[in-house]
Amino acid sequence: MSDRTTLVQIEDLTVKFPGNPAISHVNLTVERGEILGIVGESGSGKSVTALTLMGLLADDAQICSGQILFDGQVMAQAGRAQDKALYRRYQGARMSMIFQEPMTSLNPTGKVGAQVEEMLLLHTDLPKEERRRKVCERFAAVGLKSPEILYGCYPHQLSGGMRQRVMIAMATILHPDLLVADEPTTALDVTIQNQVIALLKEINEREKNAMIFITHDLNLARRICDRILVMQNGQVVESGRTEAIFEHPQEAYTKRLIAAVPKRKRGEEAVVTQQPPVVEVAHLNVFYPKQKTGFFKKNEKQLVVSDANFVIRQGETLGLVGESGCGKSSLSKAILGMNRDITGEVRHASVRPQMIFQDPYSSLNPAKTVEWLLTEPLRAAAARDDAWKMTADKRRELVCEMLRKIGMDESYLHRKPSQLSGGQRQRISIGQALITRPALVIADEPVSALDVTLQAQVMDLMKKLQREMGVAYLFISHDINVVYRMSDRIMVMKDGRIIEQGETKQIFEAPQEAYTKLLLAES
């Protein structure tokens, strides 16, 4: 290992895709033992910079200027293709990467132990039993219990937090000098998110490796990073020590990013206590069939939500928080009527509610235009209710009106989801949910995949439409600060039960349950 303190140098790096410049004249350094945060909006060039550094650029990408050095070794340079043989010697052994979504990064058909062991198979001469022992040791080191049992599990048998720990074990089993973490906690709830952040920090301090931490969550960057590099439109606009960036930002763009971070602040309080209910849930139990194994009878059921009782009123936002697996989505499906294996009551005062999903790129049909996507709910409503039957011209008029409501216009009618930004796609999802004027919309993590500026825009849009249309929201999020900003009341779920609910201010200032106090302390 070299004595030099600078491990990574990126000098004047410009990368282009066919007809599309990705990053332009990027310069950065990473010292041994430090954590460099790269922040910026979607499309700012964060991931392209990391992928270029790691030798994972797409074949059609071209390095137009500059070079990348790793511990003094030139890894990539303008005018020549990336040396795949060189990178294979470094990838995994000396430089490693943790990706955003472990479910898509892990092979669903392979056991997780064997997938982690492959790193040892490629880079060491250890015998099979020794490789297995090291994998189990690494599982234990990243906080995974019963590593011998876990070794034989498939990815779908693990929770989101466990899968991310497996990815961290895979990335660190050879103790690399550099660890690149690309949005490693985006899909995780607040408690698991904090555990992963603490684990990465611990590994950095224990092994003295360098880390590049890519995120759109500025609160996380502030907690874990020594230095921050801010990117916009493929360029570095500002860099410096973390506290200097947050306390004394120099660039207007950096100031705008920091201002958009969700804070525990509230606007005017809506008076909703006297409004009529749009949905009443009484003594609701929700069941799923148990997986067929030798231990369970064929028709045995698993209770996933137990004795839920609450009301959502017209024009109100009820926030729902709790860690992954606590029953938030199961409760939502029961309210929507997607799971009818229930006992108790769900009483709707109007038509069935609509839903806004977390990832609009997955929930919008990629083959259809914006006009078709916004018209389809109207056609579906007409099939159920004659009151919604109308001419094609009337449907188009309603579609154009909704486009204006969500801050877009008729120029988007013939575009497809791939031709829209992340924020525009989420606006279309909101338009889809509201175009039939439902009394209730369930918003399941509607801003968690968005950067902070888009988060603020989407939340402001949802509040504006709520005031205009009187719609009620059940707002599900793992981000406590987002829930505080959006919600009139909050429900906290744990292990399938609603353990606490009340006015937002009351929950935040005087929580009654130990679990609620833990959630607030960790946010």
Q: Could you give a short description of this structure?
A:
This protein has 523 residues and is of the alpha/beta class. 38% of the residues lie in helices and 26% in strands.
Kindly describe this structure:
38% of the residues lie in helices and 26% in strands. It is an alpha/beta fold and 523 residues long. Strands 6-7-8-3-9-10 form a 6-stranded mixed beta sheet, with helices on both faces. Strands 15-16-17-13-18-19 form a 6-stranded mixed beta sheet, sandwiched between helices. A 4-stranded antiparallel beta sheet has the order 2-1-4-5, covered by helices on one side. Helix 5 (128-141) packs across helix 7, helix 7 (160-172) packs parallel to helix 8 (190-207) and helix 14 (370-384) crosses helix 15.
Tell me the structural class.
Answer: alpha/beta
The shape, in one word, is globular
Mean pLDDT: 88
Which residues sit in consecutive blocks of at least 5 with pLDDT less than 50?
none
Helix content: 25-40%
What is the terminal separation in angstroms?
39 Å
Strand content: 25-35%
Q: Rounded to an integer, what's the Rg over CA atoms?
A: 25 Å
Report the strand count: 19
Number of helices: 20
Largest sheet: 6 strands, mixed
Q: What topology, given as strand order, has the largest sheet? A: 6-7-8-3-9-10
Q: How is the topology of this model organized?
A:
Layout: E1 6-17, E2 20-31, E3 35-39, H1 46-54, E4 62-70, E5 73-77, H2 84-90, E6 95-98, H3 102-105, H4 112-123, H5 128-141, H6 147-151, H7 160-172, E7 178-182, H8 190-207, E8 210-215, H9 218-224, E9 227-232, E10 235-241, H10 242-247, H11 252-259, E11 277-289, E12 301-313, E13 317-321, H12 328-336, E14 342-348, E15 354-356, H13 360-363, H14 370-384, H15 392-405, H16 422-434, E16 440-444, H17 452-469, E17 472-476, H18 480-486, E18 489-494, E19 497-503, H19 504-509, H20 514-522
Parallel strand pairs: 3-8, 3-9, 6-7, 7-8, 13-17, 13-18, 15-16, 16-17
Antiparallel strand pairs: 1-2, 1-4, 4-5, 9-10, 11-12, 11-14, 18-19
Helix pairs in contact: 4-5, 4-7, 5-7, 7-8, 14-15, 14-16, 16-17
